[in-house]
Amino acid sequence: MLLTLVEARAQTAPTLIPAHDPVMAQQNGTYYMFCTGPGIAVWSSKDRKTWTREKPVFAEAPAWAIQAVPGFKNNHIWAPDISFHNGVYSLFYSISAFGKNTSCIGLATNKTLDPTSKDYKWVDQGRVVQSVPGRDMWNAIDPNLIRDEAGAPWLSFGSFWEGIKLVKLRPDLTAPAQPEQWRTIAKRPRTPQLNDSLPGDGAIEAPFIFRRNGYYYLFTSFDYCCRGPQSTYKIMVGRAKAVTGPYLDKAGTPLEQGGGTQVLAGDKNWFGLGHNSVYTFDKTDYLVFHGYDAADKGRSKLRLEKLSWDAAGWPVVQP
């Protein structure tokens, strides 16, 4: 899911840095961006314009991941998710065999994001969720943590197969809460004749849930990533009054029945846009995502845009 980074490039780079599946956090005036890459790629910035490459989260692949996903090495840890709660940063991440649902979502924690701090140390908490071919019609990648009004943690995730899933987690985030309850909150039609082992043609993935003014907004990506100039990624959204749904688009169609309202799509300058996250920095909302740059052979780059809301409360981007 990552186009090769140019190792010879300068350690400090302008906004258009190579990135895939970016997420972001702010600590003490510094922004930290995490994305797909060897050991989970990390960049830092004071202004969200000039970025400095930091050391990856993992110097070596977690031992459990090598055992769980045959053939996995530390070269492709996908789609992280960063959040902060009760003094702890939680970083979920994806381990997978590309195009298969031999996949796991893991968790690492840290007291700080500042690499110069004496408290800086990523501690791997291991596997949280796993999907198994032949058993599960879902794919345990692309995690996103959201807390409901009561502070309870919920994990959304998913890619292709039967779409986006949601499960409540234990308070320590290390496993699903008991009894386990799995919900489908978004999906697209899938050809039923396809073998269960195949991803299928219901191209939806990369959920991100954002709370605002009494609604939970579920952002997802439709169509295809990772194909350079042939990428067709687009960002879609629906919303719900409860974290568990049902999520509806502007027309009132449930996302679990194929609905979705378009937020942003590719054009002649960017072949595809997707795998977004949403944050409020300094009282302004931002959409963070990656795009396939037409000016650079379709390579994947970090994109940030201000996010506004229309009179009915739907997200609007005017790049």
In short:
With 319 residues, the chain is mostly beta strands.
How would you classify the helix and strand content by structural class? mainly beta
Largest sheet: 5 strands, antiparallel
Give helix and strand order, one letter per element, not per position: EEEEEHEEEEEEEEEEEEEEEE
Low-confidence stretches are 1-13
In terms of quaternary structure, the protein is single chain
Distance between the ends: 25 Å
Shape: globular
Radius of gyration: 18 Å
Residue fraction in strands: 35-45%
* Overall residue-averaged pLDDT value: 92
Spatial order of the strands in the main sheet? 1-5-4-3-2
Number of helices: 1
Question: What share of the residues lie within helices?
Answer: under 10%
User: How many beta-strand elements?
Assistant: 21
What can you tell me about this protein's structure?
The chain is an all-beta fold. Helix content is 2%, strand content 44%. It contains one helix and 21 strands. The chain has one helix spanning 63-68, and strands at residues 12-13, 23-27, 30-35, 41-45, 51-54, 78-85, 88-96, 103-110, 123-131, 144-147, 153-157, 164-168, 182-186, 204-212, 215-222, 234-240, 261-265, 270-281, 284-293, 299-309, 315-317. The strands form five sheets. A five-stranded antiparallel β-sheet has the order 1-5-4-3-2, with no helix packed on it. Mean pLDDT is 92; it is low at 1-13.
